Amino acid sequence: MGENSNPVIGNARDEGLEMVHLAEELRRFAYQNGMAANRTDSFFHRIQAMSDQEDATTNLQSRLYRAAASELARNPTLHNDGSLIGFQEDRESHLALQSLPLNERMAAVLYLVNGYASSFAAQVLQLEERKLMELIDNANQKLAERLSIEDPQELTQRMQFLEKSIKRIKLPENEAPTDESPAADELPQEPIPKVKKPAIWLIVASIALLAGVVGSSFFFDSFRLPTVSEASEGQLTQEMADEMEQQYAEARENAKQRLGMEEGEFAAFAYVADADEEKDELFNRSQLQQHKDDAERFMQQTEELIWMIETPKGMGESLANSGHMPVDEMDRFLELYFKKTDELQDYAEGILKSNQEQLPAASEHYGEPQLLASEIPDASAELEQLLAAWPEYGLRFRLADPDRMHLLTKDVNGLQQLPQFQTHPFAFDYLQLFWVYPYFDEQGWLVEPSHLVNVLDTMLSLLVTEPTDSELKTGIEVMYEQTVWQITKGAEHEIYENGAVKPEIRKLWKTLASYDPLAAVLLPIIDEMESSGWRQSASLENLEYGDSLDMLRLERQGKLSSTLPNGDFPLEPELVDLADFNYDRVKELYGRFKQSHDIKLLAGVQPLDIYFLYFYANHEKDPETMYHLLVDSELKPSLEQYMAVWEPIPELTEKALWVEVQQAAIQRIYKKVMIQPMVAYREQDLGFHRANPLQPALVNEQDHTWLVQYEQQEFSKAPDPELQEQGMKVYELLADKEELPKDTSPLTVTYALLHAIDEENIEVANSLLSDEAEEQEVGFWRNFASSHQVAGFENLNSMAFMATDLNIQNEIDASIEILYETDRMQEWYEHLQMTLTPDGWRFMLYPGY
What are the boundaries of the region Disordered (predicted)? Predict the structure, then answer.
């Protein structure tokens, strides 16, 4: 996978041929994603016109693919029968792909079938590469289930065969119908909701409702709106008001029937009552008179009214074909959406809880609850109604445990795919927060406590940096305070075990103390807990609901950091051009510090000066002074060991253009404060690997004193005959069942592991795992070698090792990064975690492998 990449555009004489090639490619892409064959030609012309409006300097293929993905997102339920595909097995693969949600389907088509690089696929779908790979993992799992394939290699082969079949397809040139109606080979994915009463009843009811309102609002009052023939430009007319009032009546009736409810049941919802009240207010005499000269504003308010009464699914559909929306309108949309789904969630959970005994403990249909009804033959009428109308609710099953199968959360996938929300600066964060909310109930956690680190990080980002004062933001404040309260003074059985705070909660508290507003709450608690063996804290007992919001307000005012450990230092943001830099600013300090290595001399010195002091000592070939500028840590060797192996690091003024420190780069790590200078390099490839000696972290632990964080770093650029020889010796020792020297370098251990995999010597490979990692079978290692391209050394470009204990637990965190370059000049990184064991450096394997 990932063998293709976006080709470089040729010169002008080749552009015509390239466009012909791309037309065929993009038409096949549309067909792969469910579009009818006879609609793909007009589809390409539409996206060609869309792409012409983008920056012409952007790669043509990228522009066209982005436009194609955006256009396909307007019709997420497209589904064709694959009849143009020659082989039955490939048609089955094609149909399995179309059963995926649109975002996973497009990601799978680009990456798994068509073989594009993950970077290109992520660019097309406008996602982070990490998010793209999450979609690919989900798609792989679902495809394997639908195609009944257990071997990942077999699934890969199926996708490769499908690619060949797709390339053989000859798509017709005729245009699609102009009304954009689905063609014969497009099959609906969802049943159309039943309408309980004939359509003529809906029209009569709407006219009756309209007549009543018109009678009371207009005929008995002297005010009236102008007609179309009487109105000037921009005025609200009688016909427009009538039409918009009828739109509301139709939308209300449609929403009720899509939910499968009778009037009394539907009207009992607070959001429905609010919408009806808002509608009466909007169409009364005074409001119409107020809007008579501003038809556009009245139409906007009517649009919001339709949002209020629609089902959650209907709300999303109302935006599918609309264009750009201002941020405040989108905020209002989300506010209404979440308020509505909160109420529908409570309603649905009530039904599920009262029918919980009928819900199967496990079923593949929990992802498509409409099909769940087939497994519940004796379902009650209310449960049957709920499951039949499920897509309208905007909900999904949480499936926490068999005792709480009735719990739900919001399904925001549809909204995330809408282009309006992809351009909103904060919509993704809001959607992610509400996606799994609530995070706990009266019985305890509904998510793993470690998940709350990302949750609170997102909340703080919104509450501190989001500039608006929307209702959404107010809701996040409530969520934030509830969550902080729950992790400190919530259910006792979730926090304590045998009278002491659980280890996972201790780690959670220390991790969250990396954020200043939470550190202000948690640091006193942690100190007192540690002194008492994690059993009691007066600060925790005195904590009151609302205290965390007080700390948050101080943070917004810029008054909080000075109250925290190592938080009251003055930092001067600075960018230094290194073109004519000669270390004059630190020479006098260097002379004094070199004599005594007294750390007190460094108190109050700016972090950038400590950085230059370190590199000036390197420039002067003075490893002893460099050593004394390093923070003490478990990894830091003795002075004698450091001096024995010391080699100069690259000369800063020769390798870098400029260096900068910024206030925004400061990061709290429990009680420490860290900042990492930004460096611009003269050579673009100098700093590609993580083990980078020109960007050490600077740490403030106490007394306003910055020091350089010690990191164990090793780097090898292939070919490296010396490393190869050492790695082979280590491999041979292990093959002869002999012990390795404990000081064997991590790069040598890595080379031995790669050679063991290459030789399929599973015993040696397993011997290089840490005690915490389980031994693996031959199939695992073969899959590992194939999936991660570690078999063989012909493509190996470099290896970089880095180990540090700059984290909340002061534990050693080590990893090795391997870079491969294929014959297509593509880069592939392999990232492996390592740990320091009593026997030396060994590997840790996680389920992701």
Answer: 171-190
**Mind listing the pLDDT tens digit for each residue in 398-423?**
876 767 778 899 998 888 888 888 77
- What angle do helix axes 327-354 and 312-320 make, rounded to 10 degrees? 150
CA 784 to chain centre: 26
- Mean pLDDT per 10-residue segment, the chain (849 residues): 41 57 87 89 85 69 87 81 81 89 90 88 86 89 88 82 82 56 44 32 34 38 69 81 89 93 92 91 82 84 91 89 79 91 93 86 78 82 90 86 81 85 84 87 82 91 83 87 91 91 93 91 94 95 91 88 76 89 94 95 93 96 96 91 91 90 83 88 57 82 88 87 93 92 93 88 89 75 70 79 84 86 73 89 71
**Domains of the chain (ranges, CATH numbers):** 12-168 (1.20.140.160), 193-310 (no CATH), 438-563 (no CATH), 574-709 (3.10.450), 715-844 (3.10.450)
What gap in Å lies between CA 490 and CA 17, rounded to an integer?
66
Query: What's the pLDDT at 684?
Result: 59
CB 601 within 8 A of CB 593: yes
3-class SS at 46? helix
Q: Which amino acid is at 178?
A: T
Q: Return the closest-CA partner of residue 337 out of 266, 284, 394, 281.
A: 394
784 and 757 Cβ atoms separated by less than 8 Å: yes
User: How much is the pLDDT for 585?
Assistant: 94
> Which tokens is 470 given?
């929307």
Which burial class, exposed, middle or buried, applies to 387 when counting CB atoms under 10 A from its CB (0-12, 13-18, 19+)?
Answer: buried
100: Cβ–Cβ under 8 A, 6 or more apart, which residues? 108, 139, 142, 143
**Contacting residues for 662 by C-beta, under 8 A, at least 6 apart:** 573, 678
Cβ contacts of 476 within 8 Å, gap of 6 or more: 430, 433, 459, 462, 463
pLDDT at 447: 86
> What pLDDT shows up at residue 527?
93
| Spatial distance between the Cα atoms of 632 and 290, rounded to a whole number of angstroms | 71
CA distance 648 to 643: 11
Look up the pTM and report it. 0.60
**Assign residue 392 a region: left if phi > 0, alpha if psi is -120 to 50, beta otherwise?**
alpha
Closest CA to 102 of 80, 129, 74, 81: 74
Q: Cα separation of 761 and 778, whole Å?
A: 9
CA distance 752 to 790: 12
Q: Are 2 and 116 in contact (CB under 8 A)?
A: yes
Residue spans of alpha helices (H) in 496-606: 503-512, 516-531, 538-542, 547-556, 584-596
Distance, in Å, from the CA atom of 796 to the CA atom of 388, rounded to the nearest integer, reads: 55
Specify the pLDDT at position 792.
64
Neighbours of 462 (CB within 10 A): 19
CB 395 within 8 A of CB 412: no
Instruction: Determine the Cα–Cα distance for residues 834 and 772; give it in Å rounded to an integer.
Output: 11
The phi and psi torsions of 552 (rounded to 5 degrees) equal -65, -40
